[in-house]
Write a structure and sequence with these properties.
The protein is built from 17 helices and ten strands. The chain is of the alpha+beta class. It has one domain (25-465): Cytochrome p450. A hairpin with a 2-residue loop joins strand 7 (380-381) and strand 8 (384-385). Helix 12 (251-282) crosses helix 14 (313-325) and helix 12 (251-282) packs parallel to helix 16. Mean pLDDT is 91; it is low at 438-445. Bound molecules: protoporphyrin IX containing FE (HEM). Protoporphyrin IX containing FE binds at residues 88-89, 101, 104, 108, 260-261, 264-265, 268-269, 272, 328-329, 333, 393-396, 399-403, 406-407.
């Protein structure tokens, strides 16, 4: 019954299923959506995969049927062998996920996220100082900024968090291991789960697991020790340890939950900022409008703050458009259908893996006419942000990103300060390779040459930013 009602899709090999390209998967999915319709079926072996590639279908399926899609598919290598079911992202829907999610949600809901604003301003100022010193390294600075904020938010870590900091390097290494284990098709065990019990199979996953357990436990214990000594600043981990009776998480769950936040929040934020710098360099007219708005609302005698956010719709539209134009998770994150879902005469069968494909949705011509055009104006009506426009930057339904309020604040304050301080342009001899970003992902994109011309005199800028934000 279900097979007859499956959405259409490209022909698949009877045993292997659909061949997937090695790169630019998101683009291939978008082409298939153009050919087969808003939702399509793929197969990997016997696994049915449903791709949702249009805005309306995503709203009606991923959002309205959110309850049926709160589950994740099984990840044997990354979720079971490496993480022993501890990573919130991969955790199946159930009692444990609810406990983990509640803890994150409570700490990062909008009101609570506000308490980190002074810290975000302080780090945004540091990014400006880094750009003044060495503008060519802007991508590295964005990574350092994002790592610094997330480590401070998660652990209250007070040591300088340069990307060369040994602890940051170790955290990156653990994240890289995870990304390797999570890569689609990387491990046969994801197709043949019984291999998990084969002695000697993928032994390195055991070694990687020991490394991450050691690191995450060490971080948790350090906060615990700081708390005993009365030296722990506010942080997510401190909150977990303080309210252990409310959320009933054991030590390993707390250690992994904090550890997971770095993976979730660091590269995503860094790549978003880099994409915005690239968009500014590629589209000077759009940048000019944001700067005219900053000049009118803020002026050049004081830096922008969070209090200005509501009065800067042009800047907000620029951010929204960049997040649509270069989605941070182009393929999306997998969900699992817990029951049959009927939509448009098709059936998404129970057990199917379902992706809301961010890239394909971002190219939906009905919602975003001329989707390849970078046009912040599409988000505005009479100079105000349109309430009827949305994109799914932070995912879908019950699994929507719980860090979105922190992330949005980071993007706003950094972009406001960058645009207020600099005019960004391409270096004529080395034009930006926009295609290098077309698969914009967690992996770092190819470098491109950008010029940061000061809009505010350097000394005046340094003086005005002296007391900007606080390191809590
Ligand atoms: C621009 C920055 C960010 C982007 C674009 C982003 C995007 C996403 C997306 C698309 C998902 C998957 C949603 C789904 O399954 O449909 C997700 C999940 C998640 N994000 Fe973010 N995120 C960002 C920053 C952050 C930050 C700063 C944090 C932590 C403070 C965070 C924590 C998480 C967690 C814990 C999950 C897993 C939720 C679950 O499975 O229940 N993210 N994020």
């Amino acid at each position: 019954r279900n097979t007859r009602l499956l959405p259409p899709g490209p022909p698949a090999h009877w045993f292997w299923g659909n061949a997937m390209p090695r790169v630019n998967i998101a683009h291939t999915l978008a082409e298939w959506v153009n050919t087969y319709g808003p939702i399509l079926t793929l197969r990997q072996g016997s696994q049915v995969i449903i791709i949702i590639g249009r805005h309306q279908a995503a709203t009606e399926i991923m959002e309205k049927e959110g309850g049926a899609l709160a589950d994740r598919p099984r990840f044997v290598a990354a979720g079971e062998m490496l993480s022993h079911g501890m990573r919130i992202h991969l955790s199946p829907y159930g009692e444990k996920w609810k406990r983990l999610r509640r803890a994150v949600h409570t700490h990062f809901q909008p009101k609570a996220a506000e308490t980190y604003q002074p810290l975000q301003m302080f780090n945004a100022k540091n990014l400006i100082m880094d750009l003044l010193e060495n503008p060519k390294e802007h991508q590295r600075h964005a990574r350092r900024l994002a790592a610094s904020v997330i480590l401070r938010v998660t652990y209250g870590k007070t040591t300088p968090t340069a990307t060369t900091d040994p602890e940051v390097k170790q955290i990156h290494k653990v994240l890289q291991n995870f990304q390797m284990a999570f890569r689609p098709g990387a491990y046969l065990v994801d197709r043949i789960p019984i291999l998990k019990y084969l002695p000697g199979y993928a032994n390195h996953l055991k070694r990687w697991r020991e490394e991450e357990v050691r690191l995450f436990t060490h971080q948790l214990n350090r906060v615990r020790t700081d708390m005993r000594g009365g030296q722990a600043g506010p942080s997510f981990t401190r909150y977990l340890l303080d309210s252990v009776n409310d959320h009933s998480l054991c030590d390993e769950e707390m250690a992994y939950l904090s550890g997971a936040l770095f993976g979730a929040g660091a590269e995503t934020t860094a790549v978003s900022i880099t994409n915005m710098i690239m968009a500014a360099a590629c589209y000077p007219e759009a940048q000019k409008k944001v700067q005219a708005e900053l000049d009118k609302v803020v002026g050049r005698d004081r830096p922008p703050t969070f209090a200005d956010q509501e009065s800067l719709p042009q800047l907000q539209a620029f951010i929204e458009e960049t997040l649509r134009w270069r989605p941070i998770l182009p393929i999306g994150f997998p969900h699992r259908a817990a029951r049959d879902i009927i939509w448009g005469g098709y059936c998404i069968p129970e057990g199917a893996t379902v992706f809301g494909s961010h890239w394909a949705i971002s190219r939906d011509p009905d919602t975003f006419p001329n989707p390849e055009t970078f046009d912040p104006e599409r988000w505005l009506d009479n100079g105000k942000l349109r309430p009827d426009m949305s994109f799914f930057t932070f995912g879908f339904g019950r699994r929507v990103c719980p860090g979105q309020h922190i992330a949005n604040r980071s993007l706003y304050i950094n972009l406001a300060l960058i645009f207020w301080s600099f005019r960004i342009s391409q270096v004529p001899s080395a034009p930006i390779d926009v295609t290098a970003f077309s698969d914009s992902v967690i992996a770092s994109p190819k470098p491109f040459e950008v010029n940061f011309e000061k809009r505010i005199g350097e000394q005046a800028l340094r003086t005005m930013l002296e007391d900007y934000g606080s390191d809590i």
